[in-house]
Amino acid sequence: MQKFTITIHGGAGTILKQDLTPQLEQLYLSGLQQAQDAGFAILENGGTALDAVVAAVVSLENNILFNAGKGSVFTKNGEHEMDAAVMEGKNLLAGAVAGVKNIANPVELALAVMQQSNHVFLSGQGAVEFAKQQNINMMPDDYFFSQFRYNQWQAVSNSDTYMLDHNISIAETILKDKKFGTVGAAACDKYGNIAAATSTGGMTNKQYNRIGDTPVIGSGTYANNNTCAISCTGHGEMFLRAVAAYDVSCLMEYKNLSLTDAMQIVVNEKLMKINGEGGMVGVDNAGNFAMIFNSEGMYRGVKSSDGTNEAAIYR
Ligand code: ASP
Fold this sequence. Notes:
Layout: E1 5-13, H1 22-44, H2 49-61, E2 82-88, E3 93-100, H3 106-116, E4 121-123, H4 124-133, H5 141-144, H6 147-156, H7 171-176, E5 183-188, E6 194-200, E7 221-223, E8 228-234, H8 236-242, H9 244-255, H10 259-273, E9 278-284, E10 289-293, E11 297-304, E12 309-314
Parallel strand pairs: 3-4
Antiparallel strand pairs: 1-5, 1-11, 2-3, 2-6, 5-6, 7-8, 8-9, 9-10, 11-12
Helix pairs in contact: 1-2, 2-3, 9-10
Bound molecules: aspartic acid (ASP).
């Protein structure tokens, strides 16, 4: 029988046990569990991998702890600009949005771009206009506000430093700790189809209109039924330069590597060589999964029809 599986992430980085209180740790773990349950329920009921990854990412976007949708980080000029992408592996269909504001669930807008437009990638005002036409849920600025991300931004807002997410403490810690809070999912359904989705607020104090790897098909997000579905998190500039997600697919396609072996090479060799801190989660078309990171930690989880069901944070 075809194994079906969903794997998710909520960001990678210098996430150390001593930085999280037991209560906060519990909140993160239950947020992850909730998201993978939402995706897995769809797979179990015969739904598609595409619907499962979107449901899991929506759940994480709605959770203020993660840097996507509600709780997104602040740009250099104090706004929230979000990126998201979705891709399905059967027909290589993809949809993505970059730099969108006031969209409650950017992954749903990316899905609408894929399914309701004849484009793949929309940005800025054009994306927001399209969202209105599609009746995508819009929210005022304060919906996206979180005090701890505001504090993070305040600590670096007078500098040219841009930084990664999941920091919970003061400026010096922020500058030495790098934490990434993008969310994403990859799934394989009962029919052997695979899909991936990723969503992010990007990096704190990023230049406005900066676009990371998340919405760039092949860098932060990729899916191909012949190889794998991948969602990345980490320092986006390096993931862009490494074309990280597609590189895993290429190693599988052209070198016949397994998902795990291909991901190891990309995360622990190729990205490491260019100081590309972060990680990724993925599945292949047999429902096997991999969750690999070169940082101290990665919020992650997996649930499969073979009984696997776990959420984890640290190495
Ligand atoms: N990759 C994201 C970006 O560069 C950041 C993250 O993963 O948290 O926008």
